[in-house]
Structures are given as C-alpha cells and as structure tokens.
C-alpha cells in the first residue's frame, strides 16, 4: 500500500489511524452462480452491521441463566482481540487470524483491538490500538475512530491508551475475560477474571445458534466454496498432482474475495483418500482412480466445510461408484431426519446402520450376520471412524458441541456434536467410508468379533478406492433443514462435469505451468 504526501499531511494527533489492511470489502462479482438472491444477500450484508451488540446481550443472558446470583449492576466483559505475531528470528509476521470470541462480540477484524461490555449500562466500547505513526508509511491510511463508530455495531470507540482508566472505573466490578494472554500490564490483569467456565459456557451457547446475519455470512462462504469445488472438478486437464487441486481451489477462492480457508484443504487421490486429515497434497495423480477434496472458503471469518469426491477418468469404477453411492445413502437418510429436537448421536448411529446395510448388500459384511449383530460388534467403526458432522460457524469445528473424547463407546468418541439439534444451528452432514490399512489393523484385526463378520476377499477389491466422504453444510430450520451447499453430489452429474472438462484439453485452461 502506498501512501501519498497529501495523505500524510492529514495525519494529526486528533485524526488517528489503524491499519486498513485487514478489512475485506466486497468488490467481487460472482459469475458462475450469480442470482438475484445473491444480490439480495450482499445488499443485506452491506446495509447492516455485524450484530455485535446483540451477541453481547446474548452472552449476558446466558451468563445470567447460569449464575442466578450474578450481580448485573457490577458485571462486565472485556476481551482483548488477536494481535499480529511475528515469526521467530524473522521480520515477517504470521497471517493474522482474529480471535473468534473477540470477533463474535465485536465484528472487528483489526489486530490489537479490545472491547468492553458493561452489563449494567449495556454500553459496548471498542478500543482501537494506539496509533503507530511509523506504521502509516508501511500500512497506509487506516480507519479513523469516527469511521469505526459508523462501521461497527458499538456505542463508543476509544483508543487503547484509555483501557487502563476505563477498567479502573470498574474496579468494583467482576470483569469476565477469556484469558489475559494479550494483557501486558499486571495491574490490568488483576482487574480481570479469566478462564471462568461459566463465562465460556455463556459464550459458546451464544455461538451455538446463528442469527440471520451470521447465516448470510455462512451462505456466502458456502456459495464461494461451491464455485471452488466446481472449478476443481472441471479442471482435470491441468490437475496432474494433488497440489494442483489445492491451487485450483485457492485460486478461485481468492478470485471471489475469500483470502483465507477455514482449514488446510485436504486434497488427496487414490489410497490417500483413506487418511482423514491428509494435508500433504503433493503426490502425482496418474494411475489413480479416485479423488477426495475437503475444503472450505471463509467469508468475514465464517467458514464453509465441504467435501466432494470424483473419478479422475470421468467415469466411476464399479467399486468406487458402489462406495460413493453407499456414502450418499448414509448422507441422504440422515438428511431427511435433520430437524430441531433430534439428537445428533442418534443420526450418527443411524449412519452406521445405513453403512452396515450397504456393506451387507455389497458382500463386505457376511450375510449370515444381522444388521444388529454387526452393529453391536461395532464392525462398521473400522470403515467410518469419525463423527457424522460438527457445528460450523466462526470455527470449522465450532463451539458448543461438547464432544467427549473419553467416551467409552468408540462409536461416539470422535463425535463433535453431542446434543439435540436446534433451529439455526449450522452443522455439517459428512459421512464417509474408508479403506485404511492402519484402521483395518487397529479397529478390525485386533477384534476377532469384528473380523469375523467381514469377507476379506470382497473387501480387498475396494482397497484402491481409499475413501469417500460427502460433506454438506446444513442449516437447521423450524421443521427441517436447508442445505447451504449447492455443488452437486449426484454421481452422474459429477461424471458429466469431469468428462466435459477432460474433453476440453489443457489449452482451454489458463495455466502457465
Ligand atoms: Mn467437516
């Protein structure tokens, strides 16, 4: 960013700045899925502020619900947001990723900012970092305090130099905070009450269900992600290595204004598809049949999380198609049950039962064993070891799911959402089937009662598929669900997209290398 002489002349002690580098302003128009509803979404987001005040009030309500004796007249919350961190022994900085709790309560993506919410007056104050005039030359014209007041849903904007006095004024208050990691002043730390489990509970329960604005952000992240997945599926002539899929996805995300991914994209082929969080993304794809890509673009810190699988040749092999359809069946059966009040544990176990029925049909499970018998022996665990899905929002695995990684039941141990669904939760529905040598050794061969039900000869035929996962982002509505993910998962349609791309040849695509 280059700063003009004229701009520098405007700098004065009353006109103060913060770096504007971290704002994402919508300047990109979608071309492949442009619709009037998209324009409506963008208009609504642009004409409304991120509802920070409502989020603070929600946290206050939740804390009151948890602590009936809470002295509202003397309670506040204060959170110091994320800071730019430098890389050790290097003058470069790590990519800035805002503290999610801070963003939820402020909608502010500026490094080094803090917020104070007074439960008594319900006043929300944003503290911007003190101005570093030296930095203006490097970072350009930042947002003024006045602009910040107009941009964000806060009652007052002050600078960090006022934090001390503002908190001192509340020295007779209980001031909750998540942590004091970014507080360098010991006196300030003493005024704060960090790590209170009830405060975290209040925050997490607030983030559990999304308001309309958050849903629109997630919808936008999903729409960008749809286009990215479509681009990966339809650029086979220039995708010869797993890394090329990664590049294609990221390229189209950035083209649409999404600079960050919610998580490292998982781009794998062949037997690598059996590794759940494969992030090496660097192997050649020739001589392989199957591909799995799990990636989600972010919009204003809210992320999508979508997985698609397709055949590299444009035509599923018999075994790949059979596994694909089994997973699709698991996902569809679960999908139709998604509604408020339904316990996620139940849907997860239902997905296991659908897998068992499918494997009985394919002959991977021996027909002399009943669905119940196989279920009781937990033989499906080896092929579907992870949870059916998780909450989605500011975090890929969003807060409020209360997983129990010590659950004695291995079928439920890795399930990240352990409660009934509620309206306005956003969850992923992501069943999968994997043929992973490690899992076969650990979850099958070490358990004779499970090994017994598997026809090893039949199973062997499927090993090369590696794995299939299909993942969509689902909004729980009044009486059912809405699928925010629109990229097709229909195997015939996927074959058509991949085949059409292959027929175009390399010269059709923009690829320098
Ligand atoms: Mn996921």
Helix-strand makeup class: alpha+beta
**Low-confidence residue ranges:** 1-34
Provide the domain count. Answer: 2
How large a portion of the residues is in β-strands, by DSSP E? 5-15%
Distance between the termini: 29 Å
Protein name: LAFE_0B07294g1_1
Keywords: Hydrolase, Manganese, Metal-binding
Organism: Lachancea fermentati (Zygosaccharomyces fermentati)
Cofactor: Mn(2+)
Structural notes for this entry:
The protein is of the alpha+beta class and 513 residues long. It folds into two domains: 49-208, 3-Layer(aba) Sandwich (Creatine Amidinohydrolase, Chain A, domain 1), CATH 3.40.350; 212-508, Alpha-Beta Complex (Creatine Amidinohydrolase), CATH 3.90.230.10. Helix content is 36%, strand content 13%. It has 18 helices and 16 strands. A six-stranded mixed β-sheet has the order 4-3-2-1-5-6. The chain has a three-stranded antiparallel β-sheet with strand order 7-8-11. A three-stranded antiparallel β-sheet has the order 12-15-16. β5, α8 and β6 (192-194) form a beta-alpha-beta unit. α2 packs across α10, α3 (52-66) crosses α9 and α12 packs antiparallel against α13 (344-362). Mean pLDDT is 92; it is low at 1-34. Bound molecules: manganese (II) ion. Residues 305, 390, 428, 430, 471 line the site of manganese (II) ion (MN).
